[in-house]
Each structure stands twice: as structure tokens, then as C-alpha cells.
DNA sequence: TACTTAGTGGGCTCAAATCCCACGACTCGA
DNA sequence: TCGAGTCGTGGGATTTGAGCCCACTAAGTA
């Protein structure tokens, strides 16, 4: 990964009548270092994340290759169901999207329901260091309430 | 930290119809030693704090840079979710602001609700030794009531 | 009193965010 | 096969808000 800076910042945005969302320049720029190709991922109900596609591929391939190696080595014989589920998730969890002019992207069918925001609704766009997250407002608040107290400890753990 | 003096003093200020707030000269001067760049932080509901950006960076960057270094070294591969959470919290907790002419700053969207003061409302600006705090009046009073009795003991502990 | 300085209000401008419309591809049913 | 409706895409028009600047006022000072 480039020794890039963390992607940080918090913004309010409205979703179009046609489910388009414009990403603020501060976040779009570091995200699209080399291409306007992005990966949209279902994180949890009420939250999607956006990744630079090359970073994402690197991250994903590493994991997938490990699993493949294990399968080939016969080390997942008894775990067929788990492997199936992994495949299923790989299929549905993420998708390529493009940033069009004005940094606009279309939130595809399937991701709309997951995000849970109707056309014309509001979302929060948040920099999450290595990616950008799109939050339904109430999910964001609930999550924040829960995690804010952990902040100090988290920095300690990760940096130690 | 520079062997600067403590930043002290208490002032009433009005927040503009446009959410502008002018920082008293006594507090703004020591805060802006070298630049008009400041960091605005969400401390607790009803209270924001303002930091000299170089001091703040020193305080935070130490930890953050460690995390960055670990990421670049590939040592947090399995901890993506934690890194994301850290970034998310970094994004929402603080933001750069600038002091314009007359030491006026704009309280950004997101911090307004947190402070809980509507346009045209009153706040207290308080020097807190190493930073400046902006308080909603009632939050300030509640806090004061609770902490005042501890003052004597605190001075003893910190100075001994 | 005249002058200076700090705090506040408000006008102007520019850029960004949002609104809105038009076009073309595609689907579906008659 | 054709027309109507839907959806993705592009781009112009409008609005909103942040930054800049100036004017007014009140308080402190010579």
C-alpha cells in the first residue's frame, strides 16, 4: 500500500432521486489515486464502504489465496458449508462502481436496501483511514455511541 | 510543548446567526503561537475544545504514525476492522478549523449539534491550561458543580 | 472629548452541493 | 413490433454556505 495518509473527514450528503451520491472531494481524491474504479462493500446494515480497487484486490486476493491453498491441501474437507458461505459472500458483498463526473456514483440495486436509505434521503460520508464509509444517519449515531468510549484504548492497542 | 504559559480565563460569547464565534484575544493569542490553524475537538456533549494544531499533532501523531507504519509493514492485515474504526473515530472527533479576521471561527456542521447551541445562542469560552474549551452554558454549570469540590485535591495531586 | 481596540452584524462573491430536465437504453405488455 | 414506463447517465440551472471585507457600536484610554 502506498504510504498514503489516512482518509479522514465527515460529511453530510443527500442521495439523489435516482440513487446517486456525490463523494466530497477531500475523500474522493485519496480514494481514487490511480483510477475512478472503486469497490463498494456491504459492511453492516446501514453501512457501506468504498475502497480503492487496487487496494481492495490486494487485500482480498491475499485472503482468498490462503483459502484456496487450504482447499487444495485438503485442509478444509469438513468445512464445505463454510467455504460455500464464503463464496456466497464473495459474490454478494462487493461490487465495482465508478465515480462519474462531479464525483457522483450510483448506489446499485441490492446495496440500496442494505443501506436502508430511500431516494432523496440523507447519509453521512465518513473517512475511515483506509476506506470511505457511507452511513445511514441513525445507524451512525447508534454505532458512535457504542464505540466512542473505546477510542483511547483502540489507539493504544493498535499502536503498541 | 513550549514552556508556554497556561491558557486561562473565562468569557461569555455569542454565537452568530451564521455559527461564527469570535475567540477572545487573550485566549486566541497563546493558542495561535505559530499559525491560525487550530484543531476543534468534540470533548463531550455541550463541550468542544480548541487546540494549537502543532501541539495536537504532537499529541496524536505519535500514536497514529505508529499505526500507519504498521499498516505499511503489513502488520495489521487481520485488523482491518479495527483500523477502520480508528479512522472513523478520528474523522468524527476532530477537525481543522481556521481563525479568520477578528479571531473569528466557523463552527462546522456536526459540531453544532454536538455543542447543542442554536444560532444566536450564548457560550462560555474557557481557558483550560493547554487548550481552550467552548461550553454550552448549562453544561458548564453542571460540570462546575460537580468538579468544584475536587479542585483542592487536584492541585495537590498534580503538583506533588 | 477624541481616539483606539475588540466584538458583532451584515453585504458581496465564489464555489460547491443540490435540483431538475433531457436523452438513450432497456423491459414489459398489448 | 410498437409504445409506455423505468432506469442510468450527463449536464445545465439554482441555491446554499463559507470566506472576505467593511461598517457600526461599546468600552477602555490618553
From TrEMBL, chains A, B:
<dbReference type="InterPro" id="IPR007159">
    <property type="entry name" value="SpoVT-AbrB_dom"/>
</dbReference>
<comment type="subunit">
    <text>Forms oligomers.</text>
</comment>
<dbReference type="InterPro" id="IPR035642">
    <property type="entry name" value="MraZ_N"/>
</dbReference>
<dbReference type="Pfam" id="PF02381">
    <property type="entry name" value="MraZ"/>
</dbReference>
<dbReference type="InterPro" id="IPR038619">
    <property type="entry name" value="MraZ_sf"/>
</dbReference>
<dbReference type="GO" id="GO:0000976">
    <property type="term" value="F:transcription cis-regulatory region binding"/>
</dbReference>
<dbReference type="GO" id="GO:2000143">
    <property type="term" value="P:negative regulation of DNA-templated transcription initiation"/>
</dbReference>
<keyword id="KW-0963">Cytoplasm</keyword>
<dbReference type="InterPro" id="IPR020603">
    <property type="entry name" value="MraZ_dom"/>
</dbReference>
<dbReference type="GO" id="GO:0009295">
    <property type="term" value="C:nucleoid"/>
</dbReference>
<dbReference type="InterPro" id="IPR037914">
    <property type="entry name" value="SpoVT-AbrB_sf"/>
</dbReference>
<keyword id="KW-0238">DNA-binding</keyword>
<keyword id="KW-0804">Transcription</keyword>
<feature type="domain" description="SpoVT-AbrB">
    <location>
        <begin position="94"/>
        <end position="139"/>
    </location>
</feature>
<keyword id="KW-0677">Repeat</keyword>
<dbReference type="GO" id="GO:0005737">
    <property type="term" value="C:cytoplasm"/>
</dbReference>
<dbReference type="InterPro" id="IPR003444">
    <property type="entry name" value="MraZ"/>
</dbReference>
<dbReference type="GO" id="GO:0003700">
    <property type="term" value="F:DNA-binding transcription factor activity"/>
</dbReference>
<comment type="similarity">
    <text>Belongs to the MraZ family.</text>
</comment>
<keyword id="KW-0805">Transcription regulation</keyword>
<protein>
    <recommendedName>
        <fullName>Transcriptional regulator MraZ</fullName>
    </recommendedName>
</protein>
Amino acid at each position: 500500500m502506498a504510504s498514503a495518509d489516512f482518509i479522514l473527514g465527515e460529511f453530510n450528503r443527500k442521495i439523489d432521486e435516482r440513487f446517486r451520491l456525490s463523494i466530497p472531494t477531500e475523500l474522493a481524491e485519496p480514494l481514487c489515486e490511480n483510477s475512478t474504479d472503486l469497490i463498494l462493500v456491504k459492511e453492516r446494515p446501514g453501512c457501506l464502504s468504498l475502497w480503492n480497487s487496487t487496494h481492495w484486490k490486494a487485500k482480498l486476493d491475499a485472503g482468498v489465496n490462503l483459502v484456496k491453498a487450504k482447499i487444495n491441501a485438503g485442509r478444509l474437507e469438513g468445512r464445505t458449508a463454510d467455504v460455500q458461505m464464503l463464496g456466497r459472500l464473495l459474490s454478494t458483498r462487493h461490487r465495482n462502481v465508478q465515480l462519474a463526473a462531479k464525483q457522483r456514483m450510483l448506489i446499485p440495486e441490492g446495496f440500496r436496501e442494505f443501506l436502508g436509505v430511500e431516494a432523496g434521503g440523507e447519509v453521512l460520508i465518513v473517512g475511515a483511514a483506509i476506506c470511505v464509509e457511507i452511513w445511514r444517519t441513525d445507524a451512525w449515531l447508534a454505532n458512535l455511541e457504542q464505540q466512542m468510549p473505546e477510542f483511547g484504548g483502540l489507539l493504544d492497542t493498535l499502536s503498541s
